[in-house]
């Protein structure tokens, strides 16, 4: 038997609870993992609360991240005892995920746990930090380097935002953080933000073009915020878009793209090919101070995850939430 958060749907109504399940209930896969830690991401919170169409089939165990130890494997890549890590691949959406004491997965979805991190530290980073690293790499590829000017990070208090600030700062960028929680200024400056602006400056409908303010940006908000970020991006700059906390729409125009040569780089972490995943995690191991992870992270037990999902969607969670199974 193992414990798992299970989302069920009956007569159009979603129910979620902590259950004890037989191992025979696990889905198909060639690697069985004893999960040590998972995380609670924005997407997980939407799945648990039913406030977003994340779950594609029921019953479902949520959790898009996990780290643990291989218990059984018929994969050529992994052997029992190996420490492994997973982000994305539809886990927690179409395949049972990491908010459970056990998971059965495809070996192709897993990568070795980086030597730089423990399972808890890797989950403190999770999809949020991994996505932030992919976004930073996208800016680098487009030539947005520290000497090009400021870089804006929206959703600064969230997981992606927190890690984006930490990574950019470590690489020498001057970071502007946009937040709706001015009381968190000390936290953001500790991560490396040099300037704090109110998210209200960006969240309302704006003009197609605005005064040029930043050479690049990492946006996890979408909608009017992303439109305004693009409008204020300097000539030749790049915006890496990786979230939709405000909405999926983009009420913008072609003006930033054809008058200022701005690039909008989409960041997908779910289906990213293995080489890019390994490179992102290698960079994370080089750039992040494991001691700094504590400032970004709160640890809870599996039984607390459902209540914490509501807190996260209400904007009352700062940084990252690690869900420990041990």
In short:
This protein is an alpha/beta fold. 29% of the residues lie in helices and 28% in strands. The protein has ten helices and 15 strands.
Instruction: Pick out the low-confidence regions.
Output: none
Main sheet specs: 7 strands, mixed
Order of helices and strands: EEEHEEEEHEHEHEHEHEHEHHEHE
Calculate the terminal CA-CA distance, rounded to whole Å.
15 Å
Secondary structure category = alpha/beta
Q: How much β-strand is present in the residues?
A: 25-35%
E-strand count? 15
Q: Rounded to an integer, what's the Rg over CA atoms?
A: 20 Å
Measured as a percent range, the helix fraction is 25-40%
Shape: globular
Mean pLDDT equals 95
Q: Count the helices. How many?
A: 10
């Amino acid at each position: 038997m193992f414990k798992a958060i299970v989302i069920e749907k009956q007569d159009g109504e979603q129910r979620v609870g902590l259950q004890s399940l037989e191992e025979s209930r696990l889905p198909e896969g060639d690697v069985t993992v004893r999960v040590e830690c998972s995380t609670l991401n924005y997407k997980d919170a939407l799945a648990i609360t039913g406030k977003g169409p994340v779950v594609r089939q029921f019953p479902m165990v949520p959790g898009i991240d996990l780290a643990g130890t291989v218990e059984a494997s018929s994969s050529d890549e992994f052997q029992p005892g190996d420490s492994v890590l997973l982000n994305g691949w539809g886990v927690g959406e179409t395949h049972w995920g990491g908010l459970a004491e056990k998971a059965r997965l495809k070996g192709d979805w897993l990568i070795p746990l980086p030597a730089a991190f423990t399972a808890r530290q890797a989950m403190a980073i999770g999809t949020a930090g991994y996505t932030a690293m992919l976004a930073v790499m996208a800016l680098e590829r487009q030539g947005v380097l520290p000497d090009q000017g400021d870089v804006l990070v929206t959703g600064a208090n969230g997981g992606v935002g927190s890690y984006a600030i930490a990574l950019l700062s470590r690489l020498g960028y001057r970071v502007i953080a946009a937040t709706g929680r001015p009381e968190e200024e000390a936290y953001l400056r500790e991560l490396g933000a040099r300037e704090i602006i109110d998210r209200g400056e960006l969240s309302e409908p704006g003009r197609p073009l605005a005064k040029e303010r930043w050479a690049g940006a990492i946006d996890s908000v979408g909608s009017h915020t992303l439109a305004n970020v693009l409008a204020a991006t300097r000539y030749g700059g790049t915006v890496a878009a990786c979230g939709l906390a405000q909405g999926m729409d983009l009420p913008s125009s072609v003006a930033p793209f054809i008058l200022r040569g701005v690039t909008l780089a989409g960041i997908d972490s779910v289906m990213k090919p293995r080489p890019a995943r390994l490179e992102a995690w290698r960079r994370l191991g080089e750039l992040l101070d494991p001691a700094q992870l504590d400032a970004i992270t709160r640890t809870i037990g599996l039984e607390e995850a459902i209540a914490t999902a509501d807190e996260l969607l209400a904007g009352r969670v700062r940084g990252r939430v690690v869900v420990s199974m041990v």
